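re: that complex we talked abt at group meeting.

here r the seqs, copy pasted straight from the sheet so there may be weird spacing, ignore it
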Amino acid sequence: MIIRGGIVYDPANGIYGEEMDLFIEGGRIAEEAAGPELDASGLLVMPGGVDAHSHIAGTKVNTGRIMRPDDSRMGTEPRNPVCRPCTGYTVPNCYAIGYRYARMGYTTAFEAATPIINARHTHEELEEIPILDKGALTLFGSNWTVLECVRDKDLAKLAAYVAWGLRASRGYGVKIVNPGGGEAWGFGANVKGLYDTVPNFDVIPAEIIESLAKANEMLGLPHSIHLHFNNLGKPGNYTTAIETLDLLKGVQASRMRQVVHIAHMQFSAYGGTGWKDFESKGPAIADYFNRHSHATMDLGMVLFGPATTMTADGPLEYANSRLLHAKWANCDYELEDSSGVVPLVYGRKMPINAIQWAIGLELALMTKDPWKVIMTTDHPNGAPFVNYPEVIALLMSRPKREEEIATVHELVKSRTALPTLEREMDWTDIAVMTRAGPARILGLEDKGHLGKGADGDVAVYNLRPDEIDPSRDHALVKAALAKARYTIKGGTLVARDGEILSAPPGRTYWVDAGVAEADANRLMADLKDKFDRYYSIQISNYMVQDAYISHPNVIRAGLQVREGEDRSSHALAREA
Amino acid sequence: MTEDVLCTFCGCLCDDLRVEVADGRVQKVRGACRLGASKIMGHDRIKTPMIREDGVLREATYDQACARAAQILLKAKRPVLYGWASTSCEADRKGILLAEEVGGVMDTTATVCHGPSILGIEEKGLAGATLGQVKNRADLIIFWGCNPAEAHPRHALRYSSNACGRFTPEGRSGRKVMVVDVRETRSAKNADKFLRLIPGTDYEVISAMRMILGGKADVVPETVAGLPKTQLVETVEIMKNARFGVIFFGLGMTHSRGRYKNVDNALSLVAELNAFTKFVVMAMRGHYNVAGIGQVMACASGYPMSVDYSRGAPYFNPGETTICDLLNRKEADAALVIAADPASNFPRSTVEALAEVPVIQIDPFENPTTLLADVVIPSAIAGVEAEGTAYRMDGMCLRLRKLVDSEFPSDEAILQRIIDNVRRLRA
Amino acid sequence: MISGRTLNQGASTEAKMGLAFGEETSTCALSEDDLSVMGLSGGGNVLIASPFGREVLRIRADKGLPSGMVFIPMGPWANSLVGPDTYGCGMPNYKGVEVEVTPTKEPVKNIRELFAALQRI
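got the structure back, here u go
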């Protein structure tokens, strides 16, 4: 396939709006190719979008569907010769997820959190999502084995457990959510901060986070730890964020990347002491990210309208449900973690929601380096992913922001810095924040860029970057990003002008990390004991079997990677 | 000896059975309860596919039976595809595809079992946990409207009353077990406390408990549904003072007057108990994969049961798209029944309505539905003769093993053949 | 009338055309008091009638039942007494059905006889 004459943004390779042809051969970007030609003359061209944090598959997602038939009634689309039927808005069915991401020009999406014990369910659902390449991050922040290794200061055994847990769950990376809190919630309690002892286990969240970060780097995993802070959602929690980030300053990264990626930063950038004096600490957080280079974040932007909150932060969801008088689903996973689901609606005249909305934008606009910031809405917690074009239009257009600010609660003016922010992002920034950045942050070497050998995932949008002004023409920007002119996945044209033309299956990425046999043996002795005494499932039935990953893409790490091996297959250009 | 075999009977989905296989057959099973052992040891099977001609079922080939099934489904305007709870998720997914292609209604046995629980969850959500959480933490276990001694025999030992765990090393003696029911069942005989309800009064009793819990005991009358208020006050105190309480509920709630309102109320009670202590709630799912068909349907359509595809897009409206209602109102004009026995389990007049439409049955075993069927297709037994996926009552997803080869095709394979025939006939 | 699961019914649920299932699901349980009032303390059959149907079942005693309640294992005999109405939620009324129970000398059908009226001609 040949894509002719597009205006290409490929920041990872130092290309910022050059007119060029792209060639895809054998599913990969090549120097030349035969095959059908797509006319992209003058149109915006970027790598396929990469969503590094979204809730798209597994028990809590499906619980959201089951408890929200009201949501399933929104967004109903009948079947057609190519597409299975679709339903849902904040909790779309599996087919809708694939088609709707593809329509927007996204080609990769990662499930933000799966417990190990029910990762099979996560993969059952991932298998049903068409088109996208995908993976899942595995929860480690409250597992009994983790807490005990941390308590015993046994990093080698912890690393062995992480490797084993990734294999058992066919997971891609280490996810940590309200560390220690998932265990405390087992008896209805929570941890109040980094230095609060986890009941019955004699460890503190600070130790859990540090140890997992070190284990992650010992294994040389492609992604860093992916962290959802303690105290998420609480007024004044920005101090927890900064304390936690400081904790990890000294950890040595094993690859050219961050040491910690922060999930949905917006929900942890709050000031004030309660809801009455609630205010944004977006500027303080952005300032921290500007002065440090060991951390990255994704926004977790809130948009007005319906959403469904779903997270492994069980106590948070319980609190949400009481606050909002909303229906509440909870699931605690034995020996591992917790989770909760609560539907809600963000209102523009609701002062807290208006401030939350502003914070997401502040974080993006005030963090100088777009490589540190991934654009997300923590789908579906902040807003459904189909609304990404709205976020992008806001980031690129001050006039649009001003129009919106005029309609939201006036506290946005006094409690946030948003009205003062003049920065308008350009296409390079957007390409970094939705493609090149997330790919690098996740450690996906063949994604998010258009260099030779990269996966042939390309998005062509129906707008002319050389002719339009995104600041003034923000409505055009939003409309064009909602329906890509062409979405190409692995060299196959899957979508055109909003119509799905083809729905091939995608691949599931997971990490297979090796550790020393002695450590693995010590771990297995411990695990066998846990399965004998505590688990309600036999260990031989616990691991996710091959049958659940029909198109695997396995990344090796740990001892299975030869020492000194260059993990990047090409130089990644970086704009200072 | 094959170890760690999954049992394919009830929603406990025990995965610690030991099965001896020899000469291509299951010889012995260890560790199963009577229900599971009975299933795995096997029964007489339907030997060949059959098609009814002149009122009599006559032998046919799989090709003929699948072709005939496809014809029936295509000819119907609103066929209903029902059952699904005792087969694998892989078969369930084929069923959904088939329903989409023929514009039928997918419904599951939950419709006459825990369907009301699903409706309750749609109203209130569900504060849940995996069974291992109960085993390791629960010091108060309440069985409300269920009789695990007869329906989930190993539940108490593996997961609840008698299980030992990290924070429950004493097992049964460290716990309080309560049974709430309209009659003293075998489960009640093994409880510390038995609360007898007048049939159809679950809703009032739960409402009174919620009032008491909410500090409004003075508004509650001296007797509620025949129970003295003092007894209710005492029960609520026990619940509040638990370290970790759980309510397991069953068909006593879903089948009785109030249906999903009973469940709604129970879910609300548990949510409110969480203000005082840790409390969870769980539906005692009857079949080993009824939770699975619910999960698979929710993922594929957005709804866990009763999904009408006749307009090309999923439409869900219990009371309208539920199979008993479709049959009663004569809105279903054909039925495919798989891994279920509606002739035994539906009200008589609903069965009479089923008898009036063409019925396709896919099942290893003969049952009263076979007496009504126009096409009968014998299948392999999932979990014994075919691999696949199943979901336990608490939502845990596990893989069924294949223990022996079989001359019978799996449900999954049969459904695929019917889909192939549907496509061929359409083209 | 309350219908529900029993071990015997479950253990024979894959062999429904065999004797065990038929026997289990055509046997109803009553309290000893109620049996005594009807003169059936030594055993026998009863005719159970609801607004929706009537069937003959054999009896057994169950000490756990209160007076005025008859328990039938889930199955086609119980469902002969259950009405079709789902009250708009899809679920028929399997428990709490008002029935009249009278002793009878009529025999209990077997499962094929029970379904004879429904069998296709």
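couple things i noticed - Chain B touches chain A through 64 residues (CB under 8 Å). The CA atoms of residues 56 and 374 of chain B lie 9 Å apart.
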